[in-house]
Queue: 2 jobs
Job 1
Amino acid sequence: MLRAAWVLLLATATSVEAGAQSRPNILFIFTDDHAPHAIGAYGGPLKTLDPTPSIDRLAAQGMRFQNSFCTNSICGPSRAVILTGKHSHRNGFMMNGNRFDGDQQTFPKLLRKVGYQTAMLGKWHLSSDPQGFDHWEVLPGQGDYYNPALVSAKGKRQVEGYCTDIVTDLAVEWLDNRDKSKPFMLMCQHKAPHRTWMPPLRHLALYDDVTVPEPATLFDDWKDNASPARSQEMEIDRHMHLVFDLFLDAPEGFDPDKERGSDRSGFRNLRKMTPTQRQAWDAAYATKNAAFRRLNLKGKELVRWKYQRYLKNYLRCVRGVDDSVARLMAYLDANDLAQNTIVVYSSDQGFYLGDHGWYDKRWMYEESLAMPLIVRWPGVTRPGSVNTELVQNLDYAETFLDVAGARVPDDMQGHSLVPLLRGDESKPPWRDAIYYHYYGFPAVHRVARHYGIRTHRYKLMHFYQLDEWEFYDLEKDPDELTNLYGDPAHRDLVANLAVKLGELRAGYGDDSDVSPKPLEWRRKMRDR
Ligand code: CA
């Protein structure tokens, strides 16, 4: 009671004494499925295509986190972790399809209490209505790329145009009309570059004249992995659909209802386009699609073609996001807001861009465990700096509260990144391992449940439904191709990591796994 009163006093004092000028604004730009290796500043083969000039500029002006990871590599859960600063088993949103308990403590609610004006625009994906915002307008569910519906406290409306541009319009409009006496926290959250990848019309020809570099693991056969890697359904080869995912013309006699489990959202969205939009879309793909049909590709050549179409559309969506970043940065500059606004760019998890032969996310393997995290904080973060500490989306809520001078509640499970952003050498030792737990099985893409630990160098994963393990030396084997679990030379190391993993589970209070019933689950994995 006493402490609550003290916090209230402090909050009141803070909101009275500190006006909009002294406390920084927070612009949190958040996308869906944007893997770090599709950002120029993160390097890698795709950098040669210059996918993100504006996000790269942001990195050059601020700090890029090199070892940034999620706790549970899937859309809804990542968002719930960010809002609460708590692992999935604590915030209750463990897998897509769950409903977020909006009554619980979240960082936007706490920011509002200390005098921030808050807004949430774009992709929300947590089923329940947003709480803790002065203003919100969100896409229902996954939302559409073209002419999307938007839901707010006032009801539902449909807006003509391209989703990324529309959400940026909403952000600019809100910034223009906000209460300028208060600092703001704006969450501008894009659907892009989520499947099924529909680029903006202006970028439909982007990359037409280039060949996207292939990842080294495009034809991985998962021979060393635990068995779930061989029973998943996220292969470019066998599971990526030529019509639904890659927008080839439907062949003669094509019946969408008879096609097996695939994301039809783009296929449906094409029918919602205006005649002008549809004309531009069809014109851009007609020649390319006709050329594909003439080639009559099979086997690896077909996979390579699908990879090119997939990556080009994905990167065209990314370029649409980059345009949004450019517009928002220009707005901050033009309105004298750049100096006192922290800009954060991140995405809910990483993504397989043909790595291991896959698309999608979910696994604790590097490509989907990683999240981009770039923070520009003028006068605080050193321009062009790179931080290599192990950070997670678990830390965002604490960071935003710390930035605002608000107290971080004891039940949050991450750490404020502010000492890292300040480049504070005297900060207490940072975490030396992260904890991960994915829950979505049975579910689409058939990735078995697993938890694990990652340190700077090693990774240990437990597919507990099957009681199978994987262990990698990331320094020697960054592509995670050689599973060293069971290798006698690493026995002690694995044993120590297993103990540490148990400690992390106990420390975070996670006893949420199902007890292993390997035979039963093994049967489910095989059932199709
Ligand atoms: Ca996602």
Job 2
Amino acid sequence: MASISKTIKKNKQSVAPLLEGSGMIEYAPAPESKSSAKINAKYDLFINGKFEKPLSKKYFDTINPATEEKISTVAEANAADVDRAVKAARNAYNKVWSKMPAKERAKYIYRIARMIQERARELAIIETMDGGKPIRESRDIDVPIAANHFFYYAGWADKLQYAYPNKKIESLGVAGQIIPWNFPLLMAAWKIAPALATGNTVVLKPAETTPLTALKLAEIIQESDLPPGVVNIITGAGATGAAIVNHPDINKIAFTGSTDVGKIIQRAVAGTNKKITLELGGKAANIIFDDAPLDQAVEGVINGIFFNQGHVCCAGSRLFVQESVYKIVLQKLKDRLATLIVGDPLDKNTDIGAINSKQQMDNIHKYLKIGEKEGAEMYQTQCILPKKGFFMPPTLFTNVAQSSRIAQEEIFGPVLTIQTFRTDDEVIEKANNTPYGLSAGVWTDKGSKIFNLTTKMRAGVVWANTYNKFDPTSPFGGYKESGFGREGGLHGLSAYLNV
Ligand code: ADP
């Protein structure tokens, strides 16, 4: 069992060549070319259909977490900039968007979807450079699903009355939308597409560490000829987000991010007329029963927590294995972990890319220390990590107590805690014993067990014999401290309507 300090030291020295002596194939590098990604040296704020210099006169750098190199400089919006964006959104709402026939609105949303598809490669490369996730993920998951969200909600725009038969429905007005760094383009699509389909206008702020694909989306929106002011995209950090939340002329706040900030936002809008949806943290349980197809289950667990560096609020970060198959599952997990490639996110062979930021990397290391201090056993693969950038090997913790902080708190990194169980009731109780309730996974051969668990688990999404599958038609959202409101599907429409 490697101690943390030893592991960190080894990582720095890049010892133990990957897969050495294991008989596994080493792949030649297959990096995606950056040449098709056009990134400006500097980005202003996208307000009223134009890129405008910030009144704050301030800019900040966005870096590539895999190389620690600066990629671009982006504007930092202050309260006056937020006010400009909200005024543009209000004006566009009153004069154009709320009056436009729904089928015309749909055409713009379709056009944006098509343009995302046309520029998919560029968007995927920029997503990977700015956020650190493997190109395979951004190319095959983030970008296509983002386009699909626009397609899906374009379809609803002129059919809203069918969604709410015999009800009077109306749009809300201006939506303020604040998104995190784990799925920058996809979260922007999740927020913007339903807002536009229901006739609202938007002020959106991406996270400070991953602003670039949202700004590329602003370029697409500009080229799509969407009327100026219908979508405004402004960059900045927490203070910019707070200025959006506190702006008096915003009708709806949609937030995805940490539970701590979610609580601040909920307090800030209490007593106002603002409608709110919050999609917050998670500590999902992935449950393997002894009758499950074990290889498939292990692959699903790996997909659920290690691909994408565990930077997913619905990451299956707690594994519960039925006692009779614990040893074999643990061995299969370790064998599979040994084959995972950690490194250059732009390389198509890479399974685990860069941790999004130094701050996040430090936070994960803090939890590794807590885990060891709490008496859990840590296991890490001995892989070579790049010398620069924020990387860490996939990590397992066994001998984890139910009350342990690593089993209770969201780590948001490639760290999996493993516990055992004997009966259905025991695992349901253990899985539900967390302040969160966003998602869960069940692996079993028996349909009856799946139904028993899906009805008793306090989680917004329960995947059965699969994990981390997303579709624009399925609603997504949490219970308890994971937030409220649903995004996606028919449910996602009502978040932007008075019904
Ligand atoms: P994460 O831990 O995923 O980074 P955060 O909740 O810190 O989550 O950030 C999510 C988004 O919320 C980011 O766009 C961030 O800039 C924004 N944000 C941070 N603090 C505040 C705040 N007090 N009010 C509004 N938005 C905020």
